[in-house]
Amino acid sequence: MIFRFVIALQAVFVTLCYGLVARNNNNLQEQFLVKNLPGLYSNIPKDDLPLMFSGQLELYSENKTYYYFWKYADQNKIDIAKNKTIFWLNGGPGCSSMDGALMEAGPFRINDKGEVTYNHGSWHKAADVVFVDQPSGTGFSYSDKYDADLNGVVHEFLRFLDKYFEVFPEDFHNDIYIAGESYAGQYIPYVSKGILDRNRQTDDETKKFNLKGLLIGNGWIAPNEQSLSYLPFAYQAGVVNEKSSKWSSLLDQQEKCQSIVNEINAGTLDKGVNVHNIVNKECEKILNMIMSSSLDRSKDTNEQCINIYDYTLRDSFPSCGMNWPPDLTNVNPFLNDDKVLDLLNVKEHRKWRECSSGVSSHLKNKLEPAVKLLPAILEEIPILLFNGNRDIICNYMGTEDFIKNLEWNGGIGWQTDDDADTTEDLKADKYKGSKLASDWVYDDETVGYIKQSRNLTFVNVFDASHMVPFDKPFVSRSLIDLMLKEYDEDVRDDGKRVFITYPLGTRPKSIPEDEKPSETESDAAVSSATVSDSTSSESTSSTEASDISSTTSRITRLIQLSVICILIWGIYVLYGSYKSRPSSIIKTGPSSGKKKNVQWADQLRSFQEGDTVPEEGESGVPIDHKAGFLAKAYNKLTGSNGEGSGQYVPAPSDDIELAVVDADLSNFEIHSDEEAEESQSPRGPVGSV
Ligand SMILES: *[C@@H]1O[C@H](CO)[C@@H](O)[C@H](O)[C@H]1NC(C)=O
Ligand SMILES: *[C@@H]1O[C@H](CO)[C@@H](O)[C@H](O)[C@H]1NC(C)=O
Ligand SMILES: *[C@@H]1O[C@H](CO)[C@@H](O)[C@H](O)[C@H]1NC(C)=O
């Protein structure tokens, strides 16, 4: 009872006190404030409750373009987390960054009761993190028009940044990082080039974005080299071998792909290679063959095919990874719950789905692949590329291979003797760690290896899938330390270099000698006014053990503040009675008569949404998963829409409506439990890839 009361008070405190600040400082922010979520005040540790803003920012009224974002800021920032903003983008094209927010780097996971639970490895403790659904048509971002190419994506993202900083002007001078995954390996370099170009073109210092670095996870950056890496990777991982039924056709296919890539490199093939197509269907077929050669009908239904995002996992055929990660089972209903959407200030929307095939089918990219942009970017800012070592589709070998060929900051590749490998040799030894690789030790464990030179860092993260923060939240957060150079270096007896990072805030020399918890108390009033100013948890280690003295001081502070806030609340209630909208903070009722009048390009063709969320079966032609598992796998996380491959026919409507396809839905649920267990159990020896 008392607990509930305290929780309620806390809700009052967070919202009203913040509300005052917001009203004084920036009225715009208030409409984006997230005041509650199912499970927020009961499941999330008090000290870790993020200050959140979420909603749809208008970019253009002309074509009704709105971008959805969800920002998380720690209210008890440690020093290193101050004045930093990370924008996170998922890939696809067309996959919502709510993947990143609710299954990867964000503070929440969704449980089977539809409540948020805490991710103790959340990145928001290391920097403010803003998850952005982009380009329009992705997640809760929408427009009359889809983007036709990456130039359009850049144009809109720059606009988004301008609008974002209008709402959060205090973030403008922050160090800005852009992070993301998979097809964001195309988005991020393009967007960054757009930012750096714009910075160069303006003399007005107040218009320059303070871009400081990029973090790209399992990025689809260099289609040529990455396509050629499928077979060597699968071979080395033991997914295929000389005895595999498809071995000789695989070798043939590899040769075909290689000769096309050779032509591209020699300039004898059309230079405007469409990165969507993963170079071409010949290269795409390699992956297709690898997946189908893993089919084993003698296994359990849920285990018949290898998981394309983590070769240590299996999935049903022909899903081969599409049912993964298991968290999707809870995230889907959460993001389609009107109560939740109301709390997230999502006003106009279609049914949320993880990935929109409409976005990918419209993004007819004829521009050069993003790898070509890296050298110019590296002249100005550092880039960190990381790969979960179990991913097949954007595997680490492909990343290493394209780096070998990359010329940047005065050299080609890492510039060491042992980089003389050629990719045509499939022998496993060729791909074992090079001397240049330094071990990465986090929290006293070797968690990966690192190569670093001339502003480029490559990190191979052990025991991680395509979605590194999903498997390794703490380790993934420490990638930020690598970017910020918050690591120690050591040289072992055998001459091997080691990078050492530490659980959040525990790096020996970065801990202030004198912790001053008492100061926090006397600062309470000030802290309340600025909300994010408290430093009390600065010295707390990343472990979730709560500090009793800090708790006590917090309770004292809470009581003081509660009194103030109850007074304010009274005023607020009076004030609220003048307004027609509800003033209750813990508002859980469904919004009545919420208008959902969304205009979509494909609506003009076949989809009539009207004023309501689509009913089952109303949503047009769902993608036939069984017709092309690779189609969706590509679409979901690397960006191929399989166009021209004959595997995937873009549906007239852009929906992948998992929820309305009965067969798929049942597959989904049957598999999820088993996979949940599976993905939590440790798999294979560390660094076996
Ligand atoms: C860092 O952020 C705080 C709070 O937003 C602000 O008061 C301060 O001026 C910032 N410092 C710098 C160097 O931008
Ligand atoms: C929407 O309109 C704005 C303003 O005219 C324009 O800059 C933008 O490119 C348009 N978006 C698309 C996808 O055409
Ligand atoms: C690397 O990045 C820094 C900014 O972090 C920049 O000043 C420098 O010129 C870049 N180039 C090289 C070769 O280090």
Q: What key phrases describe this protein's structure?
A:
alpha/beta; globular; binds 2-acetamido-2-deoxy-beta-D-glucopyranose; 15% strand
* 3D shape: globular
Largest beta sheet: what is the strand line-up?
1-2-6-3-7-8-11-16-15-14-18-17
Bound heterogens, unique: 2-acetamido-2-deoxy-beta-D-glucopyranose
Number of helical stretches of at least 4 residues: 22
The computed structural class is alpha/beta
Main sheet record: 12 strands, mixed
- Poorly predicted regions are 1-6, 19-25, 417-435, 515-552, 573-689
State the oligomer: single chain
What is the percentage of strand-forming residues? 5-15%
Helix content: 25-40%
Average predicted local confidence, pLDDT: 74
Number of strands: 18
Whole-number radius of gyration?
25 Å
Distance between the termini: 52 Å
Enzyme class: hydrolase
Signal peptide: 1-19
EC number: 3.4.16.-
Transmembrane segments: 558-578
